[in-house]
Amino acid sequence: MTATHTPLHIWTGVFFCLLNQGAHGAEQSFTVQGRSMLPAIKPGQQVTISDQCLIAGENLLHQVTAIKIATRPHPLLKRIAGTPGQRVRFSSNEIIIGERKWSIPGVASSLLQRQLKHTDFIIPDNSFLALSDQPVDSLDSVDFGLIARPQIKGCLQTD
Question: How confident is the model over 137-143, as a mean pLDDT?
Answer without folding.
Answer: 87
